[in-house]
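Reopening this one. Same input as before:
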Amino acid sequence: MAPLSVKIKHAGKVHDVQLDPDQPATVFKDAVYQLTGVPPDRMKVMIKGGILKDDTDWRKVAPKAGQTFMVIGAAGELPKPPSTPVKFLEDMDETTLAEALSMPVGLVNLGNTCYMNATLQAMRAIPELQVALQSSSPSGLSLALRNLYTNMAKTTESVTPSAFVAALRHAFPQFAEQTRATGIKGLLGGGYAQQDAEECWVQLTNSLKDVSGLPGPSSASNASAKFVEQFMTGELRRVLKCDEASDEPESVASEKVLKVSCNISNAVNYMQQGILEALDGKIEKQSPSLGREAVYSSTSRLSRLPSYLTVHMVRFAWKRDIGKKAKIMRRVKFPTEYDALEIATPELREKLLPVSRKLKEVEKERAERRKVRKRTKAAQPATDKEGDVQMADASSPEASSSSGAGAGSTDPPAEGEDKGKDVAGAELEEESVYREREGKELEELIHPDVKADIGASTTGQYELVAIVTHKGAEADAGHYIGFVKKRALHGAPLAPGAAAGAAPDDGDEDWYKFDDDKVSVFPAEKLETLSGGGQDASAYVLLYRSRPLV
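Same output, byte for byte:
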């Protein structure tokens, strides 16, 4: 049924609003909230025969175009004085100002929706997805995602994702499951049950399959391509070889995959081990040459690596003895930089190897340049607020050190110290000059087949940009938290009217921690604490991004 134009009356004012009978009543309430400011939990929408409830069936209400609905409820709560004194931008120092402008917003937990909040924050680390959503005409859940990301980019306050969670539950009823509450909660009707973040990731990715892809550099690129197919889909080639009949021909099959699984057994200590264990194995099936069941060796490798590679840490397994899923607590270390050539087919590896080797060399040179620039910057004299050079006291250690390193010093550099580092710092050109030159060199090494495949990884080298963790011992309970690398969220604005935050410097490796509406900076050196080994937060879904050439 097509959306209807209806009216709502609240506090003596009449507003026009769209009512879609195919969407849940919560979507209509959210639209009313946007117009009136009345929170859905305090809102009463009068309909014929009573009050509009979240599970009301619009077909029974039979709304008509132009119909007026009465809305009762107070708009928002009275403003409270700030818990901390207000600090204006002009009074902040450079560090505080940068943090204030760049800190992303959190998502309010609407009752066991941490699985969804963590997934949405992690998926926001794919800026190309937001470009695709803005440049296409999505519908359903994709439209709700676009609207949510747009709202998140325009505010500094936590966002309440009421419309999105309603659209998610409408598209996938499994996320509308109610808890089997007892006691007082049971008498009150319970609430929504905790869900699996990895299932949410998969279903959300599947719902985005109709979002149009991004155009390639040439006009000959496939205009009908879809975003998920371009940037998030890998191709897996599986080879079966009979162990008991060496003369039996191999069987080869290919399939498209949205993730790579990492099995967690007693022998797995590292992510790569778990991935290879999931890709390779033994199976039993009917042998056409032997005419009976036989053992086959199964070997799977990726014949296409996407720009964004999702790794699923298989931490939940069915336990027959207890009759339910249980969490595997084992500690499994994961890398922040991942070389995926080992899980690629020999043909793909051969295409990616030249540019992959060169990129590793270039990355080492970039790291050295960062070190030199930092040393040069630290050696420069400090300036006060008026820009005047501050002179150090002659008796201070800094002054002695500075004078000792001057032109009159004949002391040789200390053991292990880079000789001529000050000269090297002075001779360095602008970083953009190096990047442009390096980009051209790397571009020339990209295989034509890979270059023509929009959204495919050109190097097979990845960096970790997002993590969804699970905290707790039970599969159907616990708490999910999202982590996103700071550099993955900053850059050019991706939503109309959004302001670009202050981007961290190239050497900033810290992360953001998204614990629902609480957002904080998470030091890079603490990432290893997310490897598991107990009931604390353990990495569950990891998102790797193909390393950029420049």
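So the earlier flakiness isn't reproducible anymore. For the record, The chain has a mean pLDDT of 84.
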